[in-house]
Each structure stands twice: as structure tokens, then as C-alpha cells.
Amino acid sequence: MKLTFTKLDTYRKCPLRFRLRYQEKLPEVAMGGRNLSLVLHQALKAFLSNARRDASLDNLLRVYAAACPTPKNQNQEQRYAEGRRVLEAFHWREGSRLGKAVALEQKFAVMVDGVEITGRLDCAMETEEGLELVDFKFTREVPETVDPLQLQVYSLGLKEVTGYTSDILTYYYLRQERKITFPGGEVAVREGQEQVAGLAQQLRADHSFSPKVGDWCGTCSYRKYCPAQQGQPIPTPSQLPVQGTLPL
Ligand code: SF4
After folding, report:
1. 88: exposed, middle or buried (Cβ count in 10 Å: 0-12, 13-18, 19+)
2. For residue range 40-99, what is the model confidence (pLDDT) as tens digits?
3. What is the whole-number distance in angstroms between the Cα of residue 177 and the centre of ligand 1?
4. CA-to-CA distance for 121 and 105, rounded, in angstroms?
5. Which of 213, 219, 221, 230 to mutate to test the pocket of ligand 1 (most atoms within 8 A of CB)?
6. Would strands 178-183 and 168-173 be described as parallel, antiparallel, or unpaired?
7. Is the Cβ atom of 164 under 6 angstroms away from ligand 1?
8. pLDDT digits (tens, 9 = 90+) for 179-238
9. Which residue has the higher pLDDT, 140 or 246?
């Protein structure tokens, strides 16, 4: 079985959403802000990969301007300005150590209990406390409870790609200028492996793909199909009766 971390995480949060998205292939409606998030990731990648030579704010804003399409209306101008503010705050906080980024937008694939998990690392930085693995987030809100599984799995990926184990695991919420940090090391790698193996077993044996309600329902495009949200959910395309062909 092959899974991206995003697919595994979708299944973990809600098996019904996983089924509708990846098995029935019903498209999700993109949420506002997704494009800006992609542009910010691109800008940070371009900046950090060259930060050993030029870690200045001017350079960061230059690569942002290059990654961002020219704003064509007031709404786009506001979003452009928001991205710029986020990057200025990021640079102000992290400026002194930006020249030490070591792994950037690096793809990885790791095998766990017969499952291949793929993902993409944002970056890792040398700090006085050791190697810090960082994943950038651009969500509107920081979740009330933040789970380290993604970072634990990415820590496995970092080990696969570089041979190093990260000492610190960090989600960096750019919009809120907030970092949430977990301990890394071999313990984190093992915990990630165990959770992935457990989820893969559940997925292999799952025949019901039941809905699971949580914070994530707010971004779900499938509420109309969901029995946890609607008294009478509409049938999904695969549940509609197949039209029989008329005999000649
Ligand atoms: S609304 Fe919530 S429970 Fe229903 S399918 Fe979407 S994520 Fe799952």
C-alpha cells in the first residue's frame, strides 16, 4: 500500500471523508487562502535554499514578489500584503539562524510495516539545542489540540533522506507567529512508526468508513453526504442505483 501523509491523516481524522475523497474521488472545494499558502511555501523554499549566502529581509521579499502573481484587484492586493506581513514577522523572529537551514522541500518515502508513506519536508535548522525539523502552516487558526504525528512521520523521512534524527519537532504557524514544539529523537521516530502501522491495519480492515466528527468538519466539502451532519444525507454517486439497460 502507498499513502501520502495527507491521505493517512485524512483517514485518521475521518474515514468517511477519506473514502469520499480518495476512493470515490469526489473533489473537495479548495478553501480560500490555499494559493497564498502555496506561494509562501515556494517563497520560503527559494529563500532558505540560498539563505547561507543571503539571509536578508530584502532577499526574502524579492523571492516572495517573484513567486506571487501581480495582484489585479483589491482583494488580491490585501492577500499580497498579508503574505508580506507574515514573511516580515517570520524574518524578524528567525533572522539570526536562517542561514542554517539544511533540508528544504525535500521529498521522502519511508516503509512502515509494508506501507510506503511519502511526504515533503519543509526545512530543518541547526540550533543550539540540536537539529530542529520545521513544518510551516498557514491555517486561519491554530487547532486547540495539536498532534505531533505529522512531525514524527516527517522525522522518519528526515532520517531516511539525511541520516540524521531531529532533536526538536516544530509546527510553525506563520499567520499567528506561533511555534508549537515537541521532543524529537528516536522515541518520536518510534511513536510515528507505531501509529502509522496501527492506522494502516485499521484501513486495511475497514469496511464501514464511518464518519468521525471533529474540528476538521469545518473544512469538509462532504457535509451533504454525511450522516453525522444531516438527518437525511444525499446518496453519493456510488450509492445511486445503476440504471438497467432496456431490453430491445
Ligand atoms: S463532515 Fe465531518 S464527519 Fe462528516 S464526512 Fe466530513 S469530516 Fe467526516
Report:
1. middle
2. 988 998 898 888 889 899 999 999 999 888 888 898 899 999 999 999 999 999 887 887
3. 29
4. 5
5. 213
6. antiparallel
7. no
8. 999 999 999 999 999 999 999 999 999 999 999 999 889 889 999 999 999 989 988 877
9. 140
- Residue 24 Cα, ligand 1 centroid: separation in angstroms? 15
* CA dist., res. 68 & res. 80, Å (int): 8
Cβ contacts of residue 143 below 8 Å, gap of 6+? 215
As a whole-number percent, the residues of the chain with pLDDT over 90 amount to 59
* Residue 242 confidence (pLDDT): 56
The model's pTM: 0.85
Q: Does ligand 1 come within 6 angstroms of the Cβ of 229?
A: yes
Architecture of domain 103-211: Alpha-Beta Complex (3.90)
| Nearest one of 213, 223, 221, 228 to 13, comparing CA atoms | 213
Going from the C-alpha of 107 to that of each of 98, 103, 161, the distances in angstroms are: 21, 10, 8
Ligand 1 lined by 223 (C-beta under 6 Å): yes
* Ligand 1 lined by 133 (C-beta under 6 Å): no
Beta strands in the chain (DSSP E): 2-4, 106-112, 115-121, 123-127, 130-137, 168-173, 178-183
Considering only CA atoms, which of 224, 204, 106 is closest in space to residue 164?
106
Is the CB of 26 inside a 6 Å radius of any atom of ligand 1?
no
Cβ proximity of 28 and 221 under 8 Å = yes
